[in-house]
Amino acid sequence: MTQENSAPGKPIKKKKKHIAGMVILALIVLVIAVGALLFFKVPQNIGLIKSPAEKMFATTPDRAKAATIMTSLQQAGLNTSGVEVYVIPVAGTEHNVAMVVLDASKGFDISKSKSADPVKDFLKVISSAQADGVTRTGVAYISEEGKQLVTATVPMDAVAAYAKGTITDKQLMEKVDVGTDDIASFISEISGQLK
Questions:
Q1: Is residue 166 very low, low, confident or very high in pLDDT (cuts 50, 70, 90)?
Q2: Same domain for 45 and 87?
Q3: Are 127 and 31 part of one and the same domain?
Q4: DSSP string, 42-89
């Protein structure tokens, strides 16, 4: 019998497969981590990245235009207790956005207006702000408990057309963007205001 001398073969390199698997796993974990950071808006929350709103409204509010709108609201006989007006220039444009906050927790009550139709009078006053370069307006309503119930925005050209009587209530409402977090509370609040 002859003894066969077999040369031991090269060992299979399991180490390379192990390292490749670890790299793939690390990449998957990294992708998931980055996705989670972006989903939860961590860079915006810690100030690394500005939100679109911060980029758009990076300038100081125009207090003079806001004061003009507030004075016009008072002259129209509207209740301005708990009302705050902000006119914010849109960065890089000649446009302005007027934001009106109606805060019932600070005394706003639409039924205390001296106007026969406070909503129409409010829209007429706001439409006059178009002459100051206000191209969009928004209204935020805060309940007596201090909770924001609804926000609505509308282009100023639609408000001006409504104030002039060239579009109907329905046509104006088609132009309004409304958002609310708590529809039940909003309906309850409106019902209470209308009694």
A1: very high
A2: no
A3: no
A4: HHHHTTSS--HHHHHT-SPP-HHHHHHHHHHHHHTT---TTEEEEEEE
